[in-house]
Structures are given as structure tokens and as C-alpha cells.
TrEMBL record:
Belongs to the phosphate/phosphite/phosphonate binding protein family. GO terms for biological process: transmembrane transport. The keyword Signal applies. This is Selenate ABC transporter substrate-binding protein. It comes from Prochlorococcus marinus CUG1433.
């Protein structure tokens, strides 16, 4: 009975959220993002970004948090979200499910993005210099981030496979899925897992700002480069907000200037110096790898 009551409560909460004035008002630009790290970080980042968009575009902009990567893709597909900060894989998934959606921009770092593999210091495993060394991770307790993360799952698994390592080779013939990059750090640092893979930017931020959280960790390997995060917009924003709106929106994002204090705050939160133009064709390799690993069908 208790579970049934909880189920009904969950339904009522979801109904109240998606039937709220924010979702029913077509004049509100609804912004979302994959929950790839600590929610406090995401809230601050996306609220600052939304405030700047609202100021420059003269429309109401609302940041809508989501519970996981799938919810971000689903919210975009159902048009409950107009503009979403996706990773490489989740962006491809969303665009394939949403006709006429548009890639607007990526950060200056996203053309050459990297993941890192980390290990718990107690293992006393030396770092490696090439991909073949990933075989050292066999028979260890290993965790990825979210199942649909590009930098925390897709590309790390791809590189593992290139080295002849499959999920079945980890201890228990399975891998963990922490849900976010921050959680991966916490789990490996605590010893709950021996090793893990995550976004290089999140790793470096934690090394700099959260030394206690990384005190039991060692960098094991840095991956080759690949393309990752990007802003994706619905294809009908001009119909909702007026002709030329999508072009205006893109211009605002691309013209965020690190020399302006308010813009610098936003760019710093995104670990970027600027946003640059991006195109869907840049993510073809991510799509191909996603299909190969059965993350896209």
C-alpha cells in the first residue's frame, strides 16, 4: 500500500510540474541541461545563463532541472524543453528523436574533449602511457558515470574495447554506473570502486577545488580527443518567439565575452573561454560509436 501511495504521489508531482504555467506558456523559453555533475553547480550555472538570455532577448527564460540524462532527451523530444545543454551522445539521441532540431554552439574546449580514467591509490597501479595499458583494469571494480554520458561512459567504453577490455572483464562481470562525474570521483575515492572514468574538466576542477574528495585518487590515463557538449534548440522557436529568434539566440550565446564581468561568470561556470559555432555533422563519429555500442538504435 505504501509503494502504491508513493507511486500516486510521484504521478501527482509530475503532473503538477508539467501542467504548471511555465510549461503551458509558449512565450517562456525553457532551458535544460543533462545532470552530469553536482546539482548546486548546475543550478548556479544554468540560472546565470538563463538570466543573461532573458536580459538580451527580452523574453522570459526559465531553467528546468531534470533528474537524469533520459529525462533531458525526453523533455526535448516532447518539447517541454526548448534549449538544452547536451553531451555528445545525449545530443545525438535528442536530435534523432526531434525533427528539425538545431545545433547552435559548443564551447571552445568541446572540439577536443577528453575523459580520464582514475584509480584508488590503495591499488598501487602505475599510470599508463598508451591505450594498451587499460588491460590493467581487468578484474577490478569499475564504475562509469551515467549510462548515457559521452565522457563518462560512451567514449571510455569505446577506448576500453579498443584495448580488448569489455564490461564482462571487470570484477563481477559488470560495471557500476554512478550517475554523474562527481559521484564517480566520490565512489572511487571512498574505495567503493577501484577505478572509474569521467569528464576531464570535472576531474581537474575537483583536483583544484576539492582536494579532500580526491585525496585517495590517482590519474591513470587521459584519453585521445573527441567532440562533446553542445547547445541544441527546437526547430520551431521562430514560430513561438518571432522571425529571426533562433538566429538571435545563437548570436547571444556566441557573443558571450569573457572580458565582461557578467559573461565571465557564466563562461567560468561552463569551464570555457567562449562558445563557438557547431554543426550536427561534427557529431557523426559520436553517432557511429553510439550505434556500435547499442546506445543508439
Amino acid at each position: 500500500m505504501l509503494n502504491f501511495k508513493n507511486f500516486l504521489l510521484s504521478l501527482s508531482i509530475l503532473f503538477s510540474i508539467f501542467s504548471s504555467p511555465v510549461f503551458s506558456n509558449p512565450k517562456v523559453l525553457k532551458v535544460g541541461a543533462i545532470p552530469d555533475q553536482n546539482q548546486d553547480v548546475l543550478d548556479k550555472r544554468l540560472n546565470l545563463f538563463s538570466k543573461e538570455l532573458s536580459k538580451q532577448l527580452n523574453v522570459e527564460v526559465k531553467y528546468i532541472p531534470v533528474i537524469n540524462y533520459v529525462a533531458a532527451v525526453t523533455g526535448f523530444r516532447t518539447k517541454d524543453l526548448d534549449l538544452v545543454w547536451f553531451g555528445g551522445l545525449s545530443g545525438v539521441q535528442a536530435r534523432l528523436q526531434t525533427p528539425n532540431s538545431v545545433v547552435l554552439a559548443q564551447r571552445d574546449i568541446d572540439k577536443e574533449f577528453k575523459s580520464v580514467f582514475i584509480v584508488n591509490k590503495n591499488l598501487e597501479i602505475n599510470s599508463i602511457s598508451n591505450i594498451k595499458g587499460l588491460k590493467k583494469l581487468k578484474n577490478l571494480r569499475f564504475t562509469f558515470g551515467s549510462e548515457n554520458s559521452t565522457s563518462g561512459r560512451l567514449m571510455p567504453e569505446y577506448f576500453l574495447n579498443q584495448a580488448g577490455v569489455e564490461i564482462k572483464h571487470f570484477k563481477g562481470k559488470k560495471a557500476g554506473f554512478s550517475g554523474s562525474h562527481d559521484a564517480t570521483i566520490a565512489l572511487v575515492n571512498s574505495g567503493a570502486f577501484d577505478a572509474g572514468a569521467l569528464n576531464k574538466q570535472v576531474w581537474e576542477n575537483n583536483l583544484k577545488n576539492n582536494t579532500k574528495r580526491t585525496s585517495n585518487l590517482e590519474l591513470f590515463w587521459i584519453t585521445p580527443e573527441y567532440v562533446d557538449y553542445h547547445w541544441v534548440a527546437q526547430g520551431d522557436l521562430d514560430n513561438k518567439f518571432g522571425e529571426g529568434f533562433t538566429k538571435q539566440l545563437k548570436s547571444v550565446i556566441l557573443n558571450l565575452d569573457i572580458n565582461q564581468k557578467s559573461h565571465k561568470q557564466i563562461l567560468d561556470m561552463f569551464n570555457a573561454k567562449r562558445f563557438v559555432n557547431a554543426e550536427a555533422k561534427q557529431y557523426k563519429n559520436i553517432e557511429d560509436i553510439g550505434r556500435k555500442l547499442n546506445k543508439i538504435r
